[in-house]
Amino acid sequence: MGYQLELRHFNYFLAVAEELHYRKAAEKLCISQPGLSRQIKQMEEILEVKLFVRTKKKVSLTAAGEYLKSEIEFILNHLEVTKKQLRHIRDGNFGEVRIGFLGSAMQEVIPDLLIKLKDKFPGIQTNLEELSNNAQINAIVKDKLDMGFVRTARVPEGLNIEPVYTDTFSVVLPELYPLLTREFRDVGQLAEENFILFAQDYSPLYFDTVMSICEDAGFTPKVSHKSVHAQTIFKLVENNLGIAIIPTSLQYGFQMKVKFIELKNIPQRAVLSVCWKEDNRNPALRHCINLLLNQSR
To answer: What range(s) does the HTH lysR-type domain occupy (predicted)?
Structure first.
């Protein structure tokens, strides 16, 4: 008997691939374990490839199964997005744009974009999620985000990246730190202090840039703490647990006992870029990109 691959096979396969346990997967799907085993066996017969290695102790994916898992995640996610876009169109909207961002993008770029979208394309809905650089790029590749605001110089093949905002850096000091702005010459004056930085895996380009600022001033910073949130960094500085260097625009919106000294006379700049998938077919995305690139020129 010739079987055809159906959507249920994808759901059954993905449940087993995620759980790596047939009983748990069957419970998740609300079907019997023997029935699930039959469906997976049928799927392997249709595809003519073994997807799982099953022993008495464990279940594991074959190389083919690993590949299929990533492809099915993409397919099912794209189907869900398509259903959501259809509902927006049914309701008279242009659709939805899923946007990832670093915290600093919320200070300048994203509010301007949302205002322009509301004015020119009121039917476009937006869904915002704060994520690290790598998490955004992975989500864009897997079609879980339409666009992201990142600080990175390189992206995988198939993604586009364009700078949209260039910022200076500023030193963050406790409010009562005994150094006035007029007395500040360069970061070298702070060489003996502990530094608080954004975690390297959150934004490798930012981390490397801050290190280069210090190295240009003749020292390697002693890093006492790392965080992925500006407010956490400012709180640590406020409590005299170190000092920090941040993109200047991040200073706005926080009421804390810290002070900022802008580093105007250094070559390093904090560049924020927009990233999106070249073959993304979401029509609402193109409107966002056009508004962004026009406003950044």
So the answer is: 5-62
Question: Would residue 227 count as lying in a domain?
Answer: yes
**β-pairing, 95-101 with 124-130?**
parallel
**What's the pLDDT score for residue 295?**
60
Same domain, yes or no, for 196 and 256? Answer: yes
Q: What pLDDT score was predicted for residue 93? A: 64
pLDDT score recorded for residue 2: 56
What residue type is assigned to position 62 of the chain?
Answer: T
Within-domain flag for 2: no
Q: What is the 3-state secondary structure (H, E, C) of the chain?
A: CCCCCCHHHHHHHHHHHHHCCHHHHHHHHCCCHHHHHHHHHHHHHHHCCCCEEECCCCEEECHHHHHHHHHHHHHHHHHHHHHHHHHHHHCCCCEEEEEEECHHHHCCHHHHHHHHHHHHCCCEEEEEEECCHHHHHHHHHCCCCCEEEECCCCCCCCEEEEEEEEECEEEEEECCCCCCHHHCCCHHHHCCCEEEEECCCCCHHHHHHHHHHHHHCCCCCEEEEEECCHHHHHHHHHCCCCEEEEEHHHHCCCCCCEEEEEECCCCCCEEEEEEEECCCCCHHHHHHHHHHHHHCC
| Residue ranges making up the domain that contains 62 | 7-73
Q: Are 93 and 125 in contact (CB under 8 A)?
A: yes
Q: Which residues of the chain are modeled with pLDDT < 70?
A: 1-3, 91-93, 295-297
Residue 83 lies in a domain: no
| Number of residues that this document lists for the chain | 297
- Read off the pLDDT of residues 112-164 as tens digits, 9 standing for 90 and up: 999 999 998 888 889 999 998 999 999 999 889 999 999 988 899 999 999 99
82, part of any domain = no
Q: How many structural domains compose the chain?
A: 3
Q: Is residue 270 within 8 Å of 133, Cβ to Cβ? A: no
